[in-house]
Amino acid sequence: MKTLGMLLFLSLACLACSVKPEPIAFGKASCHHCKMTLMDPKFGAEIVTSKGKVHTFDDINCMVNFMKEKALPQEEISYLMVVDMAKTKELIAAQQAFFVKGSSVNTPMGSGVVAFAKVEPYEAFIKEKGGELLTWKQVLDLF
Amino acid sequence: MRDTMRNRCVGVVFYVSALFLLLSSGAMAKEWKLSPKQSIAEVVEQAQAGDTLRFVAGVYKQANIIIQKPLVLLGEKGAVLDGSHQHEILVLAAEHITVQGLSFQHSGRSSLNDLAAIKCLDAHYVRIINNQFDNTFFGIHLSNSNYALIEGNTLKAQALNEYELGNGIHLWKCKNARIVKNTITGHRDGIYFEFVTHSTIQENISTKNMRYGLHFMFSNDDEYLNNTFKNNGAGVSVMYSHGVSMHGNRFEENWGESSYGLLLKDIRDSEVIDNQFLANTSGIYMEGCSRTQFHGNEFKNNGWAIQLQASCNDNTLERNNFQGNSFDVVTNGVVVLNTLKNNYWDKYQGYDLDKDGLGDVPFRPVNMFSTVMERVPAAIVLWRSMLVFLLDRAEKVIPAMTPENLMDNQPRMKPYDYN
User: Fold this and answer.
1) A88 inside 8 A of chain B by CB
2) What is the pTM for the complete model shown?
3) Which of the ends of chain A has fewer CB neighbours closer than 10 A, N or C?
4) What's the confidence (pLDDT) of residue A12?
């Protein structure tokens, strides 16, 4: 019984310190850069540090500016996530996402950059709303 | 003599022609009476510029009505335009349109488009007066429209999820707008400004909105006066703007984890004067705020009256009342570049021997324990304990953790009467 309890405790302790992205609580969470409350589940981003701290952002320019201002070193960032506009609320890795800038859609902090996980939805989006395709590297240089 | 004659002649000609113009235009303007069975779009098509469309009582289940000429839309009592939860209701795309006394309900919701009950596109000089909006996604949505008057409207929305809500009154890239005496409840942001300049927001009541009562972004040289912001998700937020005058507003009961009465972020050359901050988690939270005047405000029963981040400088806090707040001023830095003068602090324990109404010893509003809490928020469980009391006293005598320079040299002995 004692060992079982010990095991349970250990597994719980491991759970608590695992580093992984967390879903964004829209309506409650606030942006760690501009302080605005996150409302629109089409937009949003998240940084998870190697220590497991989660920073949420309402717009992609907030995330990029936060990284630059805090000068976060690469090795301290475990995850860089952005919201998939086609699937709202779902987070995808920024390095693998497709970004569109310059469409007619307004983002919460005016960056105008939205992210997609797959090719078809972003192509359909560009057809309807305009804009051009960017890679994550280009997005980093934008702000 | 000849000159005056000529002047008189010119005058007479002018008056006659003015009268003629007036009469002729009066004769041309026509009034159209609409009933729910008629097609609004058809009447709009037939109407001439300057005509009036009068809506008799009834529910008009018609949407996407686009108006591209200066018309007056008048609603009689009980005239309701219904968007059937799918469409935008009115789109105004011409100058000098008036919409008065109508009810709007059930506009469509969309995750991609900002569907609104009334949308104005490049429509200058619109007047939207005394209308009612029930359960619309966005209520009134203006883009690129200058000199708008939005007065006496009532907007109410309800939704379970935050993304099903739009803003009550939403302005984007507008100039010289006036937003007066509206009541906005249950929207995402009550009033939203982005790239709006030289505009006035006056005597509105904005309550129970999901995010902010009023939200300013990149909007310069605006003023908001005598409004009430109560019980909103996070109060009022003014960001990335300059030249904003905030006078005589009430910020009440904005409670919550990341909630404030007023959030100032990257603001300069602005004024916060004669406002009341009552029972908010944080009265004012400011970050990157400079050259701003805070005069004659009343801070009562807030958790924090002012959270002053170290990135703020050159601000002046003068003649304010601080009463019944758990913490008066909190800061996260040691260097302080702001001025505090002649405020009333109910926590001041000094004396006034020369009887000039001002205390003889300075008051340091930053409490040691609040500095600890800035670093370790969970420490609040120790608040009001004996240990904390002793530490605070020791800190008052020999300041070690709190910024030494952040003090009011001449605190007032009695509160100002701002009622």
Assistant:
1) yes
2) 0.85
3) N
4) 54
